[in-house]
Specification:
Helix content is about 45%, strand content about 20%. The chain is of the alpha+beta class and about 625 residues long.
Length: about 625
């Protein structure tokens, strides 16, 4: 039976009116969901090929059976079609397209254009004036570089608000990591020179930096300024050590090398980021693949989705991309990337010498990443099977959830809800809840609040877990039992999961946890080597980490809240006037009533209120 006979879509009527121009087409299933996006130089010819009797690909036959509608968008050029196709794939995530699922902007190091420039992490559009270095593969790589820069160049990394409010040097200056330009511990000329050296170093010109410092050291020695000469000597010594650790002999100043490894229906693409003759970092991608996908299709889809972005300044396109094989739209893609990047982009195939070694390294990393990922999956699945066996669940386990509460003396209470499936942590389903309306420090009430937030309005069993773990003892578990007893009365169609309390051992050491079964409150002690216990520990620890991270962020936000914000009658405009007119928060705190009253908009009575509030009267 042919594919067109299985589909209820009237392809003949559609093909009789469809245009022959270039453009993009979207295919829909019976739920009006986009299942495939494609582009074509001639739309009519390309779409007709799907409905031939001798369609060779199983993937195409299965796709055609599900088509219920097709719409087309005409474009002026093939290049426009390529861009529109990429945007549609990112928007609709069709199941028969290769999906990259990585749309994050990459982080940069930024040296700002202030009187005393700061160096720090930047993510997003390049709206701030300054020099940008990167992109870096991860935020962790940026923080690592920032720690290194603190050792090499005493440039400030603090926020502008902190910098302006300083009246004396901070701890970073005492540790030798900042030259304290905020309180004039260094001249503007010397500070600018350090910024210039940092910029040269980040561009890979460490030899130029060392030569400059050697000259400065010799000049300081001739002038008998031995303290300055010693500082230069120490900088040179540190730079030489870093140079030995980081320098990679190379020919490419800006190159991405893309490695590929296939294993049945899975694939891993691994990028080496090479900037200024150094391997800056790397990253692995695991795209979702439809059946019968060739290596050529994977590489083309990856390059298109990875580099062809809407935001011209955040597309992160290097001068050269090294890949293992050619694909149909290579020249077209190269032209589009060159236009977006505003510089020539070279896509290299059949490379030699050093590029071959880089490509081999990228392929090896891709293989290692995929095997490691699969090994982790198998380990997680074995743990799921072991836990299912412990609780004698014939249907097995698919979804686990765990709750934890974090607070400090009852303040800034946060509840976490983490989710695991058979691939491990499902971070897209993680949730945090700000707990309010309870007695501070009441963990039982906080647990009831979190459970109500998560399950109180559930209308189906689609995302209901098989087991809910409660980090705590019998009290917290009892609250969970009460909640689900009430939920079953109001929503009889909602399935009640198995509830398990996780109580820490007497010494709170891993391996001594006790599981408490809801209902009977039977205590279950699993061996320390049990894979089931390891899974429970993993989800409990992840829940604890997620809760405490949220709590610390909330606590820090509260601690940073300006003292002025707590004073009645002081809104945003008056706070801004006080800070601007008096020169910062420190000056406001030190001001007397008469000085406060001179600020425009601040009356004598309000000045008295501000003074009393700031001095706890």
């Amino acid at each position: 039976m042919s594919s067109q006979e299985l589909s209820t879509f009237d392809h003949k009527a559609f093909l009789s009116v469809v245009t022959e121009q270039a453009g993009v087409y979207r295919m829909y299933d019976h739920q009006q969901k986009v299942i495939y996006v494609g582009k074509a130089k001639q739309l009519k010819k390309r779409l007709a090929s799907y409905f031939r009797k001798d369609v060779g690909s199983n993937k195409t036959r299965v796709l055609v059976q599900q088509i219920q509608a097709i719409d087309v968008t005409i474009t002026h050029t093939e290049g426009e079609a390529l861009i529109l196709e990429n945007n549609y794939i990112k928007r609709y995530q069709p199941k028969y397209n290769i999906l990259l699922r990585d749309d994050k902007s990459y982080p940069y190091l930024l040296i700002t254009k202030h009187k005393h420039p700061k160096i720090g992490l930047h993510r997003g559009g390049k709206k701030i004036k300054g020099e940008y270095f990167g992109p870096y593969p991860t935020v962790g790589a940026v923080w690592e570089s920032l720690r290194l820069m603190q050792k090499l160049f005493p440039i400030r990394q603090c926020e502008d608000s902190y910098y302006r409010a300083r009246s004396r040097p901070c701890l970073q200056h005492q540790l030798g990591r900042c030259s304290a330009p905020c309180v004039d511990k260094i001249s503007t000329g010397d500070y600018d020179h350090q910024v210039k050296l940092a910029s040269l170093f980040l561009r890979g010109k460490s030899l130029t930096v060392i030569d400059d410092l050697v000259g400065k050291m010799e000049a300081a020695s001739k002038n008998l300024d031995f303290e300055q000469a010693a500082k230069c000597r120490d900088q040179i010594s540190t730079l030489r050590k870093v140079q030995q650790q980081q320098y990679v002999s190379g020919i490419a100043s800006e190159m991405d090398v893309v490695g590929l490894y296939r294993q049945k229906s899975q694939a891993c693409l691994h990028i080496l980021f090479i900037r200024d003759q150094k391997i800056l970092g790397s990253k692995s991608y695991f795209p979702t693949l439809p059946a019968d996908t060739s290596d050529m299709e994977i590489i083309e889809a990856f390059l298109t989705q990875r580099y062809l972005g809407d935001d011209l300044k955040s597309a992160q396109i290097p001068k050269e991309i090294v890949i293992s094989q050619k694909f149909d739209n290579l020249l077209q893609l190269k032209e589009l990337l060159s236009i977006q990047a505003e510089h020539d982009v070279k896509i290299s195939i059949n490379v030699r010498a050093e590029r071959t070694q880089y490509l081999k390294l990228a392929n090896t990393n891709a293989e290692s990443a995929l095997l490691t990922r699969n090994s982790h999956k198998e380990s997680i699945q074995a743990r799921f099977a072991a836990l299912s066996e412990v609780f004698e669940l014939p249907a097995g386990l698919n979804r686990l959830e765990c709750f934890d509460i974090s607070h400090t003396m009852g303040q800034q209470t946060i509840a976490s809800n983490v989710v695991f499936n058979q691939e491990g942590p499902l971070k897209s389903d993680y949730r945090r809840y700000n707990v309010y309306g309870i007695t501070p420090g009441d963990d039982y009430a906080a647990m009831a609040f979190a459970l109500n937030k998560r399950y109180g309005k559930v209308t189906s069993n689609e995302k209901m877990p098989d087991i809910i773990f409660i980090d705590g003892g019998k009290g917290q578990l009892a609250k969970a039992e009460e909640f689900f007893a009430m939920l079953s009365q109001t929503s009889s169609s909602i399935r009640t999961p198995l509830l398990i309390g996780v109580a820490k051992g007497e010494s709170r050491k891993p391996g001594l946890e006790t599981l408490i079964l809801a209902g009977s409150h039977q205590l279950i002690n699993l061996p320390a080597t049990s894979p089931a216990l390891h899974l429970v520990q993993h989800i409990r620890d992840e829940s604890h980490r997620f809760a405490i991270t949220g709590h610390r962020a909330k606590r820090q936000k509260v601690s940073k809240k300006s003292t002025l914000e707590t004073i009645p009658g002081i809104g945003a405009k008056k706070r801004q006037a006080l800070l601007k007119y008096l020169g910062g928060l420190q000056e406001v705190l030190q001001a007397d009533k008469a000085s406060l009253a001179t600020v425009p908009g601040i009356s004598g009575v309000l000045a008295q209120n501000i003074y009393d509030a700031l001095h706890d009267k």
